[in-house]
Specification:
Elements: E1 8-13, E2 20-29, H1 35-47, H2 52-60, E3 64-73, E4 77-86, H3 91-105, H4 111-121, H5 132-144, H6 152-160, H7 164-174, E5 180-186, H8 193-200
Parallel strand pairs: 1-5
Antiparallel strand pairs: 2-4, 2-5, 3-4
Length: 202
């Protein structure tokens, strides 16, 4: 059940695969976290080329070919997921480093992080006017979810209210064992739920 994961771990065996495919997910209570706060946090974590996961896991450590995070938003809940493919020999250090980064974010989101990502949530929203499909999709999603329909100006003002203190609070709400789901697929011989659970602890 959501928010009672403990965490939830799934292992799927596909012995012919050369790499492991991994999805690390976190339940998000949208009664405690606003959607735009979650999307802003996701941008810092793994939503862009300059994100923490891209810089640390791919560029600095060279553990993966690609890694990114993605948010799925529903009515009152959301899921923030991290996706990557990795060699089995690097799985332990990869998972542990990701958890280290997420735990660090709880206390170490800076104004620099905010400045690097704020443009995407303010000035760049005006590009929606050049792409009616994107704008209509967003308005349609908000309507179906029963959310308040905001103009671009109103969305920008809401995003500008977000500061790094608030995103630290949001991180502490989300990154808890009870919210974690982990799926590992591929040549999983030698892996167990207990072992993976231990690696999720930092």
């Amino acid at each position: 059940a959501q928010f009672q994961r403990k965490p939830n771990i799934v292992i799927k065996k596909y012995y012919s695969w050369s790499l492991l495919d991994v999805q690390l997910s976190f339940d998000v209570n949208l009664k405690l976290v606003k959607e735009n706060e979650l999307l802003f946090l996701n941008s810092i974590i793994g939503g862009g080329d300059g994100s923490r996961l891209q810089k640390e896991i791919r560029e600095k450590m060279g553990l993966v070919y690609d890694i990114y995070s993605y948010v799925e938003v529903y009515n009152d809940v959301a899921v923030l997921s991290i996706f990557f493919s990795i060699e089995k020999k690097n799985l332990q250090i990869g998972i542990q480093k990701i958890m280290e980064i997420l735990n660090n974010i709880r206390t170490n989101i800076s104004q620099r992080d905010m400045d690097m990502n704020m443009t995407f949530f303010t000035d760049n929203l005006w590009f929606w006017l050049e792409d009616s499909h994107e704008l209509n999709f967003q308005l349609g999603c908000d309507f179906v979810k029963g959310k308040e329909i905001l103009t671009i100006e109103e969305r920008i003002k809401e995003n500008e209210k977000i500061d790094y203190y608030r995103l630290r609070e949001v991180s502490n709400v989300i990154f808890k064992n009870k919210n974690i789901s982990l799926i590992v697929m591929g040549d999983t011989k030698g892996l167990s739920k207990k072992l993976l659970k231990d690696w999720l602890e930092v």
